[in-house]
Specification:
- With 152 residues, the protein is of the alpha/beta class.
- It is 30% helix and 21% strand.
- The chain has helices at residues 2-9, 24-35, 56-72, 124-132, and strands spanning 11-12, 44-49, 76-81, 92-93, 95-99, 105-109, 139-140, 145-146, 149-150.
Length: 152
């Protein structure tokens, strides 16, 4: 019985394979469109959430920690509500996009994976550490399972 409920809670981040043939440039361009701007988003963290998604409560502490880390590193943060009324390239929420000082993608995907989607299973700390060492991860995570709400 427990396994049944666990399986119901574990959802594929990109269940419909929306990101299969999408470039990092297209992901950033779509984000610009969602943000309704044509200005490059440099050193920016964009949080994609759906207010009705039950998974938001699991990521709230992680989002706060990320925002503090980002602010210390000179990044700005934005939050975008994604729901069925505005379909996008974002396959599920909660999700995050991070760009570097050139506006290039550093990371796009879920905050974490696993049943609790906790900070312990996050790649984002590694992305920030790599950036501070002069590396851009250019990382898109589409194949993850955790607590996500599908879009569109």
């Amino acid at each position: 019985m427990f396994g049944y409920f666990v399986q119901l809670r574990l959802v594929s981040f990109d269940e419909k394979h929306q990101l299969a043939n999408v470039t990092t440039v297209q992901i950033v361009e779509q984000t610009l469109h969602i943000l309704k701007t044509d200005k490059p988003i440099v050193k920016t963290v964009v949080h994609f959430v759906n207010p009705s998604c039950h998974c938001n409560s699991l990521t709230a502490p992680h989002i706060e920690q990320i925002n503090q880390q980002a602010q210390k590193a000179g990044f700005t943060s934005a939050t975008v509500n994604i729901d069925d009324s505005n379909p996008t390239i974002i396959p599920a929420t909660p999700a995050i996009l991070i760009t570097d000082n050139n506006g290039d993608l550093m990371y796009f995907g879920p905050y974490s994976q696993g049943l609790a989607c906790s900070q312990k299973n996050s790649m984002i700390d590694v992305v920030f550490k790599n950036y501070q060492l002069g590396f851009n991860s250019d990382l898109v995570i589409s194949e993850a399972e955790g607590c996500y709400c599908q879009t569109g």
